[in-house]
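If you are new to this repository, start here. Below is one unmodified record pulled from the training split, so you can see the exact layout before writing a loader.
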Amino acid sequence: MMKSITLLICLLFITTIGRSQEFNLINSTPGENPEENFDYGTTLNQDAIDWRETSVGLFFMPIPLNIDNIAFDFPTFSGDVPYDYNLFSVGVGASFNFDFNASGSGFGNITYFAIIFGTSESGFQAYDIFTAAKYDIKLGALSKFELSPLVGLGNLTFTDADASLNLGSSLYVSGGARITWLAAPGFFVGADVQSVPLIFNTQKLLGVDGVVVDLYDEDGNFVTAEAATDAKIEYSFPVQVNLSLRYNIF
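And here is the target side for that same chain:
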């Protein structure tokens, strides 16, 4: 009886091994090692699970701010300063990203600092620092893309580069979304689609206290000088796109 049971167990064991080997062979192409196939699948899962970003990188603003017009209010009239050229050309700086959760999904933070260069016609220059809360959403279990809605607070400073003069600064709020592509292990490419800055104090940012206009009568005689009392920025397009290349430091 014991010999029969032992023989039956051996037969079941051999049958199980045979079926396991057959399964591996079916899922392997000729010349492929089943172990290598398994390791490859494990690597894909590892990327999906452990895609946590704690990175620094380069930040690029191809068309910053999109300012179309600046309107000033004076005691007796209002005046626009429409521009037939862009005030700013490009912005460059540093980008920082930190995911709070070990999985990489969920809440996190992005921060960037950029110098925005003015065109030769405007002579302007700006400094932009922005920090935001984001929420990372993986686009599929094994996807190398994620979408991150975000909203944050920034500070914008305008300067006159030609005169080395600080015009003013103001806090602002902006929202949008970041799309991130895992281009290689630890290497990320990002595109931020954000609303243009909703500036808290445009008057302070533009240094309105320094804007004075001389008024003349119909004969060209000087009448008085009026200082601007308020100002507002009008944008040619309500959103801007920023790009970043980032690398994990942890």
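Two things worth knowing about this chain: The chain has two domains: 2-45, 54-248. Residues 1-29, 34-49 have pLDDT under 50 and may be disordered.
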